[in-house]
Amino acid sequence: MIVTGPLSSGRQAPGLPRLPTPPTGWPIGSYNTYEEAQRAVDYLADNDFKVQDVTIVGVDLMLVERVIGRLSWGRVLGTGAASGAWFGLFVGLLLSMFSNAEGMALAPILIGLVVGVGFGMAFAAVSYASTRGRRDFSSSSQLVAGRYDVLCQPRNAEQGRDLLAKLSMGTQG
């Protein structure tokens, strides 16, 4: 299975370069969103076009950081407790699987949960305190492009351009 997407680094397809290399080919379409470029390549595939010759290239890359909310000690400790609880629960479940005591199978789970919450809160507190108020917000980062060009190897570029012109005109065939 090959993982695909705008930023995926799934397994390497045969014949593709292993090191980062600039894309090659002639532009056959340009789109404002990745979804539009993906739709164009899907249209080419639906029309039996040799899509192995096609590359989607994000141009004018931007790192967009969207602020989700303000950080407070309560939020930091709560998030740390939650992530620690999940890890502690996992460790507790593993330990309980190897427990020999008949009535004590629940004890490793509870101990793992409590210790996980404690360590999660402690690590989150140390991490937050070390920033000294320089970053009192949480955010989500995303790499986006100003436009997405669809390139095709020269041997099939004209046919690809013709098909995409039909797509933009709304005709089928």
How is the topology of this model organized?
Layout: E1 26-31, H1 34-46, E2 54-70, H2 73-97, H3 107-130, E3 137-152, H4 154-169
Antiparallel strand pairs: 1-3, 2-3
Helix pairs in contact: 2-3
The number of strands is 3
Mean pLDDT: 87
Tally of separate domains: 2
Query: Which oligomeric state applies?
Result: single chain
Helix content: 40-55%
What is the name of the CATH topology of the largest domain? Alpha-Beta Plaits
Proportion of residues in β-strands: 15-25%
The succession of helices and strands, N to C, reads: EHEHHEH
Strand order of the largest sheet: 1-3-2
Rounded radius of gyration (Å): 25 Å
Q: Mind telling me which CATH architecture of the largest domain this is? A: 2-Layer Sandwich
Unreliable residue runs: none
Structural class: alpha+beta
For the terminal residues, how far apart are their CA atoms?
Answer: 30 Å
Overall outline: elongated
Main β sheet profile: 3 strands, antiparallel
- The CATH class designation of the largest domain is Alpha Beta
Region (Disordered): 1-23
InterPro entries: GSP17M-like_dom
Domain General stress protein 17M-like: 28-103
Keywords: Membrane, Transmembrane, Transmembrane helix
